[in-house]
Amino acid sequence: MPIADNAPSFIQKSRGEIEPVELFFAPHVVPDIDFEMLGLLGNMVSNRCLLEYFRMPPLEVEISKCIRKLFAWHDKLQEQREEQEEEVLLDEVLPNLWIIATYISDELLDIFNAKTQQPEWCEGVYFTKEWFKTGIVSINHLPNIPDTLWLRLLGVGAVQEKAIEQFIVLPNENPLRSKVLNFIGNWWNNTQEEEEITEEHEHLFAVLSPIYQLWQKENTNCE
């Protein structure tokens, strides 16, 4: 599903010069998927961005580190433009940072002066001061609506369980449904073949079991 450009070459060739992030996302000029189908996630990645995910509630120092990495990326992108004798990028086209966490405390949001921007963005989405170019998503604060499904699947406990229930009953014609099913089914089989199964893997097997069983059922019916 090639909906994003590759990461910048300096990340691929010079990892030692800058700390890597979990994901750099740059959508194609003409993506092969309708971002509206992704709901909130589609709005987040409609422009170039860096994404960092925390399954455990992040600490203040971890969020600060993510913001420092964002500015380091900005510097490297600008340096690359200068080396190629191209105009520097305007601030508004430099990538934003999205921090996605299963839970963010009100105290931590206050530390970074992160506020909601309703009605443009739903509850659970917060933004720091404009010059930080950083958005924070607290999955447990997201409303239980279809637009947030793809992010709530990354949650924990009851939030994730509810999202999985909602995913399983999606209509067969939903194009994202089959992509997620195949991804999880292939991941499950490939991981099961690994010599060492970690505690984290065991947890994911338990959580994702309903989706994997659905994938097995539908693949069996197709044979």
What features would you highlight for this structure?
about 220 residues; alpha/beta; 2 domains; seven-stranded mixed beta sheet; globular; disordered N terminus
Structure, described:
The chain is of the alpha/beta class. The protein has two domains: 151 residues, no CATH class; 54 residues. The chain is 44% helix and 13% strand. The protein is built from eight helices and seven strands. The N terminus is likely disordered.
Low-confidence stretches: 1-16
Shape type: globular
Strand content: 5-15%
Spatial arrangement of strands, main beta sheet: 1-2-3-4-7-6-5
Number of strands: 7
SS field, number of helical segments: 8
Q: What string, H for helix and E for strand, traces the elements in order?
A: EHEHEHEHEEEHHHH
Distance between the termini: 24 Å
Mean pLDDT figure? 84
Major sheet size, sense and barrel closure: 7 strands, mixed
Question: What is the gyration radius calculated from CA atoms?
Answer: 19 Å
Annotate the secondary structure layout:
Layout: E1 4-5, H1 9-13, E2 23-27, H2 40-44, E3 49-54, H3 60-83, E4 96-101, H4 106-111, E5 115-116, E6 125-127, E7 134-138, H5 149-152, H6 157-168, H7 175-192, H8 199-222
Parallel strand pairs: 3-4, 4-7
Antiparallel strand pairs: 1-2, 2-3, 5-6, 6-7
Provide a short characterization of the protein structure.
The protein is an alpha/beta fold and 223 residues long.
